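Lab notebook, bench 4. The sequencing result for the construct came back, and we need a structural model before the next group meeting so we can plan mutations. Quick request posted to the team channel:

Model the 3D structure of this chain.
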Amino acid sequence: MGKGKQWILWGLVLLLAVGGGLFLCRSGFFAACTSIEALRAYISRSAPYSHLFFFLLQFLSVVLAPIPSNLTAAAGGMLFGAWPAFLLTFAAVTVGSLLVFWLARVLGQSFADRVVSRRLSEKYQDVIRSKTSVFLTLAFLFPYFPDDVLCILAGLTDIPLRRFLIIVLLARPWGLLFACFLGGASFTFPLWALVLAGIAGAACFVLGLKYADRLEAAVLARLRRQKP
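Done. Here's the predicted structure in token form:
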């Protein structure tokens, strides 16, 4: 991409970041983040355009990474019901993930350095470069990882856009689905069950990273043997 087009793209990125931040600040979003009920009331004030407003909010939660998308997903579940909130959230998160991935791919390291803290970049960059597909899949599946930041760092690797999209479609929806159903009161879990689920998820993540190469080689070898 030429220098002129890069400057135009940088201007659009800056406009989106500043405009989105001012919109959220002046509309009272950050004050509403004190609870799911406050977020539900905040979203409902945008009626009759609540669904469009919720989609925009979830999109900004990816582009402006500090916004807690799972928290807003739970609020959407309370307001719209679990399935409508999930479909809106998943669509917005998918579009946002592809956008930040593409921006990192086009603008390069300079873009990542401006939107990702050095601590997070140093923490994840080596492993995401060496085991991109496996790491992204595991990180998207399990909570407590900065999914939106990882989408940006993935754009700096050589992973094809199509494969990245497949990983997003297969791995990102489950945490969002859980949050939407939890907000919609479709089911509840006791604290001990959530703790056990977190421990099991962390164990699977570590084992996956450690033995990913062996598993990948075994699967590829088996597939080759099955070819006619």
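Residues 3-188 form one domain.
Will bring this to the meeting.
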